[in-house]
Design a protein that fits this description.
The chain has eleven helices and four strands; from the N terminus they run βαβββαααααααααα. The protein is an alpha+beta fold. Strand 3 and strand 4 form a beta hairpin. Strands 2-1-3-4 form a four-stranded mixed beta sheet, with helices on one face. The protein has two domains: about 15-85, Glutaredoxin (3-Layer(aba) Sandwich), CATH 3.40.30.10; about 95-265, Up-down Bundle (Glutathione S-transferase Yfyf (Class Pi), Chain A, domain 2), CATH 1.20.1050. The chain binds glutathione. Belongs to the FAX family. One of its GO terms (cellular component) is cytoplasm.
């Protein structure tokens, strides 16, 4: 499938190839975060190896190595994890066929329409771009930082224009983002007072790995203040994010602190069990 060499894994071991993470802070990549959410929600152990997209088989991250097989693209990674019998969140959560296909549709909307709009808000706004560049490349020596920043900017700008969202105005992109977050808030509003997973199941399903990753990704950076403010002001969205972080990523201390600060400012989030 690819020219990337497998690592020396033991049977069943998963190596996740992803962007470098800074201690206690989520990755800057929503798709790398999605795979971490999937693996942690499912209780599958993994090791991370830092890399960059141009070394990846499809020139995008993440990709994984499972038993010497290299799988790029988060959709196919999840599929392979299921095929290998390592985990199946939808199955464990006991989803009906209708719930499974609703999850598929929601995943497509968030991954193909909304995530690009989030990335656009980071890279098409001068102030936000300075923040994201500092967060992602800040530790690197300037002779690596400058060309890497240039390469990322060019690659992302070209792909966002090709995708379509790069052709909208800032105001139009904000309409798209606000609508997505408001709709998600309605979809995640529980019947009671307790935060619930997307399908109101006892355990998270596939779509929860996607939605948790997107919300963690939005809140884990200061480079998309428009979206982050909407999430932190929403008891439902903030409660859902808190549940995923407290339960599965307790090392994201700064994010948890920001959620608690938001609770102090905007009122407590929904009860997290
Ligand atoms: N469809 C892919 C998308 C992965 C993706 O867009 N990865 C981004 C990081 S979040 C990337 O590597 N971008 C580098 C580039 O576009 O040059 C998946 O589901 O894994």
């Amino acid at each position: 499938m690819s020219a990337v060499k497998p690592v020396d894994n033991k049977p069943g071991e998963v190596t996740l190839f992803a962007f470098e993470k800074h201690e206690g802070i989520p990755t800057a990549s929503g798709f790398c975060q999605k795979i971490e959410c999937y693996l942690r929600f499912a209780g599958v152990e993994y090791a991370q190896q830092d890399t960059l997209p141009f070394k990846a088989p499809k020139k995008k991250l993440p990709y994984v190595d499972i038993d010497g097989i290299i799988i790029p693209d988060s959709q196919f990674i999840v599929r392979y994890i299921k095929e290998k019998g390592l985990a199946d969140l939808d199955k464990s959560a006991g989803l009906t066929r209708l719930q499974v296909v609703e999850g598929v549709a929601y995943r497509g909307y968030w991954e193909e329409a909304i995530y690009p709009a989030i990335v656009r808000s980071r890279w098409f706004d001068k102030e936000n771009e300075a923040v994201v560049a500092r967060e992602v490349f800040g530790d690197l020596p300037f002779f690596i930082r400058i060309p890497l920043h240039w390469w990322f900017r060019r690659s992302l700008t070209n792909s966002l224009v090709a995708q379509g969202v790069g052709r909208h105005s800032d105001a139009e992109a904000e309409v798209i983002l606000r609508k997505a977050l408001e709709s998600l808030e309605i979809r995640l509003t529980p019947t009671g007072t307790t935060t619930e997973w997307f399908h109101k199941t006892a355990t998270p399903a596939d779509i929860d790995a996607v939605i948790s990753a997107m919300l963690i990704n939005i809140c884990g950076t200061n480079s998309n203040p428009f979206c982050k403010k909407i999430v932190l002001q929403s008891k439902v969205l903030c409660g859902y994010t808190k549940r995923a972080v407290e339960g599965f990523f307790p090392e994201f201390e700064t994010l948890l602190k920001e959620i608690k600060e938001a609770e102090g400012k905007y009122g407590p989030v929904l009860e997290v069990l």
